[in-house]
Design goal:
- The protein is an all-beta fold.
- It is 0% helix and 50% strand.
- It has no helices and eleven strands.
- The strands form two sheets. Strands 2, 4, 5, 6, 9, 10 and 11 form a seven-stranded mixed beta sheet that branches.
- Strand 5 (46-51) and strand 6 form a beta hairpin.
- It is globular and about 40 Å long.
- The termini are far apart.
- The mean pLDDT is 96.
Length: 122
C-alpha cells in the first residue's frame, strides 16, 4: 500500500509547458529521494531528473537540463517536475519512483507510480 501517483500529463504543443506531480501515500516522503523516469514506445527507460530526500541535491539528464526543474514539498508529500520548452522528443510515459535518501545514479528505486502520458505535438 505504498503508493506513488503521477498526474499532470497531457497533450501540449512544442515550446509549451507542463507541470507533473508525484503524490506519495503510505509512507513518509522525508527519507526518500524521488526520480522521474520516462519511456517512449520501443525505447529504453531513462532517468530524467532526481531530487534527494533533503532537496539539497538535484540531477538532470543532459537532454532536459535547462528546461526541466524538479522540486519537492514534503509537507504535501508531493514532488513536481516543471517542464518548459517542450520538444516532440519529450513525448513519453513519465514515471516517478522512490528510493532511500540519495539519487545514486538512477538505480535501486523500489517504489513506482503507474505513469502519466506526455505528448508533445503540433
Amino acid at each position: 500500500q505504498l503508493q506513488l501517483v503521477e498526474s499532470g500529463g497531457g497533450l501540449v504543443q512544442p515550446g509549451g509547458s507542463l507541470r507533473l506531480s508525484c503524490a506519495a501515500s503510505g509512507f513518509t516522503l522525508d527519507y526518500y529521494a524521488i526520480a522521474w523516469f520516462r519511456q517512449a514506445p520501443g525505447k529504453e527507460r531513462e532517468g530524467v531528473s532526481c531530487i534527494s530526500s533533503s532537496g539539497g541535491s538535484t540531477n538532470y539528464a543532459d537532454s532536459v537540463k535547462g528546461r526541466f526543474t524538479i522540486s519537492r514539498d514534503n509537507a504535501k508529500k508531493t514532488v513536481y517536475l516543471q517542464m518548459n520548452s517542450l520538444k516532440p522528443e519529450d513525448t513519453a510515459v513519465y514515471y516517478c519512483a522512490a528510493r532511500g535518501f540519495h539519487c545514486s545514479g538512477y538505480v535501486d528505486f523500489a517504489f513506482w507510480g503507474r505513469g502519466t502520458q506526455v505528448t508533445v505535438s503540433s
